[in-house]
Design brief:
This protein is α/β, with parallel strands linked by helices and about 220 residues long. The chain is about 35% helix and about 30% strand. It has 7 helices and 10 strands. Helix 1 packs parallel to helix 4. The longest helix is centred in the N-terminal third of the chain and has 20 residues.
Amino acid sequence: MPNSITAITATPLDLNRTYYETHATEYCKRTASLDLEALYEPFLSQIPPGGCILDAGCGSGRDGVAFVSRGYGVTAVDASPAMVRAACERGLDAHLVTFQEIQFESCFDGIWACASLLHVPHVEMSEVLRRFARALKPRGVFYTSLKEGKGERIAEDGRFFSYFSLDEFVTLLTEDKLFQILRAWKSEDPDSSGGMSPWLNFIARRTDESHGILDH
């Protein structure tokens, strides 16, 4: 059974860095062939041709490379040194940065956070979303996917995960009028373990109202 987060002493960041450092090669091989074309289209349709994208939690660089091949400018960040190395080896401009450390301001037309915010503790999510909103250009677009569920726990493979309901995460995105929801939907898709999981997907736009809020 997965462990309760209250039973551990290591931080979520420590746990996940340890996992990806130990399992980098097999993780990259397992996720390299996942077909995300159905997710790329609704996101990229909101980004101007040649626009700038932040691949937030880039992993092996699979998605960032796909965006570069379509003519977009991509900056990639990940909290795992092993994943940053893997993304750089694929030619991406990748940097070791946690979401809690992001300092970009009005730099990106879009942020792609596919299956990466699910590693952020609930208590830190609102601040991370504010940092994402600040990193976007006015009316920039944000895609994220998370696993549907409740609470936080350590999976059997040792990684920390946060789970949300669709309504719960919509509330986080729209609080303080940071984002306008363009689309929110559920899906049953593969996860990095090779199994199928219930996923939540969101495409949101930075609102005009957020500009003044984020200046404070």
